[in-house]
Amino acid sequence: MRKTKCSDIFTGIIETECRERYLAVQVRLNNARSEPRFEAVDTTGLHPITKEYGTVCGYSSEFYGEMGIAELRASYFSCHTREQGSEEFAFNFNLIMVDQHGEEMTYNVSKTCTLPLPLSPREVICEMDYMEVNIDRTVPYPITGGGVEPQNWDSTISSVHSLASSDWQLMFLKEGPRSAPLSLSKAHELGYRLHFTPGRVLLRTPYGRPFSFISVVNGVPVEAIHAVLFSRQRWSVVIFDLVAACSADEGSFDGTTLNWQVPAMTFPLSSHAGFVSKTVNIGVNGKLLDPQITADRGYTLSTAGDKVDISIPFDAEGGRRHRFVAHNAYLEIYTIYLYYEGVFMDSVHTESRYWHTKFLMTPLLPHFPLTVNQTILEERIFTVYLGNIPSDVVLATVSINDHEFSVAMATQSGYTIVEVPHANRTHGYVMKVPFEDPIVRKWYFREGFLKYLLNVNFTLNVINQEDYYFHVSSFEARIHDVYPPSFNGHCMDHGILFKLDHKEFDHMWDITIGDHPLTEQFAAEQGYLMVNDSQSVLLDVPLFSPGYVYEGINLHRFFGSFEILSRDARTQEIQKYSAKRCPFQTTQIIVCSPRGVMTVVADVIKSTPQAIPQRTTLLDPTCRPKETDDTRVLFEFELSTCGTTLKVKNGMMIFENIIIFEPENIPSVRPVITRDTTFE
């Protein structure tokens, strides 16, 4: 069941305006998903205004769901409009909408209009969906041939006189065989509407009907209709010559302006001598504009040559710029209801007035953000430009390597974001992020090359609409001739001295001894001497400190090696080995190798009595020295052999063996007294 509400509920939502030749009813919708409907209301009842019905009855309607706008335009001579005198017209409509609950709601809209401009003797109106011609039936008007050859026109007039009856008939003229006259009821069935008022006769027809035809006038396509309305009344034949033509130029957009063309002399008037153009004017939304206002808005109206060129700059006042976000893109359309008036005068100074409503619209114009990497390597700062941002869009947030900031938060965190205005109604932003900021990803991706990476997600917002879209970009910077820290080692009598001169990118790597980071605390625990200042690092590693590897041991000398590692700070992968191998003089040592071999060099002649090196063994008597001299022995054995024992104490594994010297046995046949005992 339909509910009815008063029209005053629509204050601020619905607007009615009497324009030059029609009433405009515009509805701004909160819920644009539902298209409203209109009904004309008169004494005979309700008349739904469908698209088809509107084209024959003088109604044009448009619905733009994305923009939330619906508009109805009603001709002053539309069906069901009540004429109150020759210049006053009363309209009554029902607006039908569906609310959020799916229930139809009906609102009454009424308006009475007085003509802003008096009617000319002949008026041609070109609407969006139809064209109409109305003439003053009290003013003599020359009967013209339109686009018909003169001999055919004379033949047509003769036929009209011979075929005329008391009933009104309509004969359509165009090139080719002449059509038979039609009764008004038959013409009505074909979509041609004849309307008689006390002062005027009107013919209205939708575009593209069989009796209309396309012609090119001064390079501009036009659609025209030429009809002769006649009736025999008493001893004479009354004839009305009804001619209308409308520009069929669709308009164009060159990227900066909307352009539209009409012939300077509109067909069929241009084919007859005596017709001259008096004035041409333009306006918007059914209202003509003062020429100064037209110029101030940047509109151009050029009448040079045989046609009129009209240009409207993008986003000029009078049109409407619609913007929205769809599929993560900022889209906009500029539309304008252009209104054109041409006034012509015939040889007897009878005026014809030509009105044309043209809806011009740009294509869907996307504005895709663009980014430019303006980074200068020497500055060691990422400088990123984000541009092509419409003036009504702002940067809402920026995500840098998955860390999201508002513009204010980014500034507080040490990143620079500066807006850059441009003259073409766009603006941009410049963002700066230092290479060495912790948020920047960096890695040593191959020898000599250091890479910095910035992944940025810019989130943009259309002002006052809360429509968000985003733009993702990646920026990369590569620094050449970058190498991991490398220590220079020097052999000393007491050990190895390492030196590292600080370089700019040393922080990219961790310095370790084995798996342990080299810190001053770790160095002290291991017995190293470490000095670190702004210029260099000195590391003094005494012989037999943890971390040495020994090889080539004999009684005279051995080699000690020490290694320092440079690791990628991010992945801990080893990038550089700094190793030094030095020879050392052998005195007394005990060395356990990583593969489980113990090497011992010991002086054995300081005992009393003196031990003989060549006659020493380990706990296992079969384990004899690998090498001896006059005073020392060198044993080399695996920890699981030669009688080696193992015990665990305080979390440590202790391996132990003993060097033994057994005195030579005295033969029993020659006994002597001795104090020699076994040496360990």
TrEMBL record:
Domain ZP, chain residue ranges per copy: 591-680
Origin: domain of life: Eukaryota
Stored Gene3D superfamilies: Zona pellucida, ZP-N domain
UniProt-listed PANTHER family: EGG ENVELOPE GLYCOPROTEIN-LIKE PRECURSOR, SI:DKEY-19B23.11-RELATED
Descriptive protein name: ZP domain-containing protein
Lineage: Eukaryota, Metazoa, Chordata, Craniata, Vertebrata
